[in-house]
Amino acid sequence: MRLNVISELRQAIGATTRYDLDEPRLHLDQDEFASVRGSLTLLRTDRGLLATVTGQAEVSVSCSRCLINAKNQVKIAFEEEYVPFTDPRTEARVQVETSEDFLRIDEEYRLDLSEGLRQYILTSGPSKPLCRTDCAGLCPECGADLNVKSCDCAKPTDSRWAALSSFESGNEGS
Ligand SMILES: [Zn+2]
Ligand SMILES: [Zn+2]
């Protein structure tokens, strides 16, 4: 997701450019990927470009209970300022404080959205994703996927659990 933004940087402060985003395979973490759809607006600021992304991502994750591959939808509302090393209009070095919050546009005036989006999606998604909210998970004894079959392992005898399991069996097939 790299864009050459030299023409945007040559615009006057306040000018905006809009792009459609359709990134089918954004690498997140290990073997996790997301597909991102939405729009990107670049606003020329006094020292760089303010990138605003709105849209949604479909993230492939493993369900934290049953481990099957699941898709999670994440809404994206992402805003980050990207600052070049030199201003292409003046050839002057852009002065920044290292304590400030911004990302870099590289020396070839390419803006790479991937890292910012990756961070955003990783931190805004649920930390324990589920394939569905009522996923029954795996049996801790035999590992059976309790969404597709029951197993013969000892059932808990605590009455509160008994009430819960009768409730669940009454909802079978839902
Ligand atoms: Zn699951
Ligand atoms: Zn079992």
Structural account:
A five-stranded mixed β-sheet has the order 2-3-4-5-6. The chain has a two-stranded antiparallel sheet with strand order 1-7. It has helices at residues 6-9, 114-124, 159-170, and strands at residues 2-4, 16-29, 32-44, 49-62, 69-84, 103-105, 110-112. It is elongated. It is 16% helix and 38% strand. The protein is an alpha+beta fold. It folds into two domains: 2-124, no CATH class; 136-174, no CATH class. Residues 139, 141-142, 144, 151, 153 line the site of one zinc ion. One zinc ion is lined by residues 139, 141-142, 144, 151, 153.
Topology:
Elements: E1 2-4, H1 6-9, E2 16-29, E3 32-44, E4 49-62, E5 69-84, E6 103-105, E7 110-112, H2 114-124, H3 159-170
Notable characteristics:
single chain; binds zinc ion; two-stranded antiparallel ribbon; 2 domains; 3 helices; 174 residues
Précis, in short:
This protein has helices at 6-9, 114-124, 159-170, and strands at 2-4, 16-29, 32-44, 49-62, 69-84, 103-105, 110-112. It is of the alpha+beta class and 174 residues long.
